[in-house]
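Page 42, continued from yesterday. The earlier attempt failed because a stray header line got pasted into the input along with the sequence. Redoing it now with the clean sequence only.
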Amino acid sequence: MNTFLQRVHHLDTLAFLWVHVTKRFQYRRSVRFISATGDGPVYLCIALALALLEPDAGATFFWAGIIAYSFDVSLYLLLKNLIKRDRPAVKISSYQAFITPSDQFSFPSGHTAAAFLFACLVLNFYPAFALPCFLWASAVGISRVLLGVHYPTDLVAGALLGSLCAFWGIYLHGLIVALH
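This time it went through. C-alpha coordinates are written below.
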Protein backbone atom coordinates (compact mmCIF):
# COMPACT_ATOMS: atom_id res chain seq x y z
CA MET A 1 0.00 0.00 0.00
CA ASN A 2 1.45 3.39 -0.91
CA THR A 3 2.03 6.16 1.63
CA PHE A 4 -1.10 8.12 0.71
CA LEU A 5 -3.35 5.08 1.12
CA GLN A 6 -1.64 4.20 4.39
CA ARG A 7 -2.42 7.69 5.71
CA VAL A 8 -6.02 7.47 4.55
CA HIS A 9 -6.39 4.07 6.21
CA HIS A 10 -4.81 5.40 9.40
CA LEU A 11 -7.21 8.37 9.52
CA ASP A 12 -10.11 6.06 8.68
CA THR A 13 -9.17 3.76 11.55
CA LEU A 14 -8.88 6.71 13.94
CA ALA A 15 -12.35 7.96 12.91
CA PHE A 16 -13.76 4.46 13.32
CA LEU A 17 -12.21 4.10 16.78
CA TRP A 18 -13.37 7.58 17.80
CA VAL A 19 -16.96 6.51 17.08
CA HIS A 20 -16.64 3.18 18.85
CA VAL A 21 -14.41 3.99 21.80
CA THR A 22 -15.20 7.57 22.76
CA LYS A 23 -18.88 7.70 21.82
CA ARG A 24 -20.08 4.26 23.00
CA PHE A 25 -23.16 4.29 20.80
CA GLN A 26 -26.14 2.82 22.68
CA TYR A 27 -28.85 2.35 20.06
CA ARG A 28 -27.80 -0.92 18.44
CA ARG A 29 -31.34 -2.24 17.85
CA SER A 30 -32.38 0.91 15.97
CA VAL A 31 -29.16 0.90 13.97
CA ARG A 32 -29.66 -2.75 13.02
CA PHE A 33 -33.16 -1.92 11.80
CA ILE A 34 -31.88 1.01 9.72
CA SER A 35 -29.17 -1.20 8.25
CA ALA A 36 -31.72 -3.91 7.41
CA THR A 37 -33.84 -1.42 5.46
CA GLY A 38 -30.88 -1.25 3.08
CA ASP A 39 -31.04 -4.96 2.25
CA GLY A 40 -31.77 -5.92 -1.35
CA PRO A 41 -35.36 -7.23 -1.14
CA VAL A 42 -36.67 -3.84 0.00
CA TYR A 43 -35.60 -2.20 -3.26
CA LEU A 44 -37.12 -4.90 -5.41
CA CYS A 45 -40.46 -4.73 -3.58
CA ILE A 46 -40.66 -0.94 -3.95
CA ALA A 47 -39.63 -1.02 -7.61
CA LEU A 48 -42.16 -3.76 -8.42
CA ALA A 49 -44.91 -1.88 -6.61
CA LEU A 50 -44.09 1.28 -8.57
CA ALA A 51 -43.98 -0.64 -11.86
CA LEU A 52 -47.40 -2.13 -11.19
CA LEU A 53 -49.18 0.77 -9.48
CA GLU A 54 -47.65 4.01 -10.77
CA PRO A 55 -48.44 4.54 -14.46
CA ASP A 56 -46.36 7.64 -15.17
CA ALA A 57 -42.80 6.63 -14.31
CA GLY A 58 -43.07 3.33 -12.42
CA ALA A 59 -41.98 1.00 -15.21
CA THR A 60 -39.17 3.33 -16.27
CA PHE A 61 -38.00 3.52 -12.64
CA PHE A 62 -38.05 -0.29 -12.47
CA TRP A 63 -36.09 -0.92 -15.69
CA ALA A 64 -33.57 1.88 -15.12
CA GLY A 65 -33.09 0.40 -11.64
CA ILE A 66 -32.51 -3.10 -13.02
CA ILE A 67 -29.81 -1.76 -15.34
CA ALA A 68 -28.27 0.36 -12.57
CA TYR A 69 -28.24 -2.43 -9.99
CA SER A 70 -26.65 -4.78 -12.55
CA PHE A 71 -23.76 -2.35 -12.88
CA ASP A 72 -23.66 -1.70 -9.15
CA VAL A 73 -23.45 -5.35 -8.11
CA SER A 74 -20.87 -6.16 -10.79
CA LEU A 75 -18.60 -3.23 -9.90
CA TYR A 76 -19.13 -3.77 -6.17
CA LEU A 77 -17.97 -7.40 -6.43
CA LEU A 78 -15.06 -6.47 -8.67
CA LEU A 79 -13.86 -3.72 -6.30
CA LYS A 80 -14.31 -5.85 -3.18
CA ASN A 81 -12.25 -8.65 -4.64
CA LEU A 82 -9.57 -6.43 -6.19
CA ILE A 83 -9.00 -4.16 -3.19
CA LYS A 84 -9.59 -6.78 -0.48
CA ARG A 85 -9.73 -4.32 2.41
CA ASP A 86 -10.21 -6.21 5.64
CA ARG A 87 -13.14 -5.26 7.82
CA PRO A 88 -12.47 -3.37 11.06
CA ALA A 89 -12.92 -6.44 13.27
CA VAL A 90 -10.14 -8.20 11.34
CA LYS A 91 -7.70 -5.28 11.43
CA ILE A 92 -8.33 -3.97 14.94
CA SER A 93 -7.37 -6.46 17.61
CA SER A 94 -9.84 -6.92 20.45
CA TYR A 95 -12.67 -5.30 18.44
CA GLN A 96 -15.78 -7.26 17.55
CA ALA A 97 -18.50 -6.02 15.20
CA PHE A 98 -22.13 -6.01 16.33
CA ILE A 99 -23.31 -7.99 13.31
CA THR A 100 -21.80 -10.62 11.04
CA PRO A 101 -21.21 -9.13 7.59
CA SER A 102 -22.35 -11.02 4.52
CA ASP A 103 -18.89 -11.06 2.95
CA GLN A 104 -15.22 -10.82 3.89
CA PHE A 105 -14.09 -7.39 2.70
CA SER A 106 -15.24 -3.86 3.54
CA PHE A 107 -14.46 -1.59 0.57
CA PRO A 108 -16.83 -0.33 -0.79
CA SER A 109 -19.96 -0.55 1.31
CA GLY A 110 -22.58 -2.43 -0.69
CA HIS A 111 -25.44 -1.30 1.55
CA THR A 112 -24.43 2.33 1.06
CA ALA A 113 -24.01 1.88 -2.69
CA ALA A 114 -27.46 0.34 -3.06
CA ALA A 115 -29.12 2.96 -0.86
CA PHE A 116 -27.57 5.87 -2.77
CA LEU A 117 -28.40 4.24 -6.08
CA PHE A 118 -32.03 4.04 -4.96
CA ALA A 119 -32.00 7.64 -3.71
CA CYS A 120 -30.60 8.84 -7.05
CA LEU A 121 -33.32 6.96 -8.93
CA VAL A 122 -35.91 8.62 -6.70
CA LEU A 123 -34.28 12.01 -7.33
CA ASN A 124 -34.63 11.48 -11.07
CA PHE A 125 -38.15 10.05 -11.17
CA TYR A 126 -39.83 11.34 -7.98
CA PRO A 127 -37.86 14.45 -6.92
CA ALA A 128 -40.37 15.42 -4.23
CA PHE A 129 -39.21 12.36 -2.26
CA ALA A 130 -35.47 12.82 -2.86
CA LEU A 131 -34.51 14.56 0.40
CA PRO A 132 -36.00 11.88 2.67
CA CYS A 133 -34.41 9.18 0.49
CA PHE A 134 -30.95 10.76 0.70
CA LEU A 135 -31.30 11.18 4.46
CA TRP A 136 -32.31 7.51 4.70
CA ALA A 137 -29.42 6.44 2.41
CA SER A 138 -27.01 8.38 4.63
CA ALA A 139 -28.47 6.70 7.71
CA VAL A 140 -28.02 3.27 6.12
CA GLY A 141 -24.37 4.07 5.45
CA ILE A 142 -23.73 5.46 8.93
CA SER A 143 -25.41 2.41 10.44
CA ARG A 144 -22.78 0.21 8.83
CA VAL A 145 -19.97 2.07 10.62
CA LEU A 146 -21.92 2.07 13.89
CA LEU A 147 -22.42 -1.68 13.59
CA GLY A 148 -18.67 -2.07 13.13
CA VAL A 149 -18.49 -3.58 9.65
CA HIS A 150 -17.21 -0.57 7.66
CA TYR A 151 -14.78 2.32 7.83
CA PRO A 152 -16.03 5.83 6.92
CA THR A 153 -14.29 5.85 3.52
CA ASP A 154 -16.10 2.61 2.61
CA LEU A 155 -19.30 4.66 2.83
CA VAL A 156 -17.95 7.44 0.63
CA ALA A 157 -16.89 4.92 -2.01
CA GLY A 158 -20.26 3.15 -1.76
CA ALA A 159 -22.19 6.42 -2.14
CA LEU A 160 -20.14 7.36 -5.21
CA LEU A 161 -20.48 3.90 -6.74
CA GLY A 162 -24.24 3.77 -6.22
CA SER A 163 -24.80 7.31 -7.50
CA LEU A 164 -22.74 6.75 -10.65
CA CYS A 165 -24.48 3.44 -11.36
CA ALA A 166 -27.89 5.07 -10.92
CA PHE A 167 -27.14 7.72 -13.49
CA TRP A 168 -25.62 5.14 -15.88
CA GLY A 169 -28.79 3.06 -15.52
CA ILE A 170 -31.03 6.05 -16.21
CA TYR A 171 -28.93 7.11 -19.19
CA LEU A 172 -28.70 3.60 -20.70
CA HIS A 173 -32.41 2.98 -20.23
CA GLY A 174 -33.08 6.23 -22.07
CA LEU A 175 -30.82 5.13 -24.93
CA ILE A 176 -32.53 1.74 -25.15
CA VAL A 177 -35.98 3.36 -25.27
CA ALA A 178 -34.80 5.89 -27.89
CA LEU A 179 -33.46 3.10 -30.11
CA HIS A 180 -36.79 1.28 -30.17
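Notes: DSSP finds eight helices and no strands in the chain.
Reminder to self: strip header lines before submitting.
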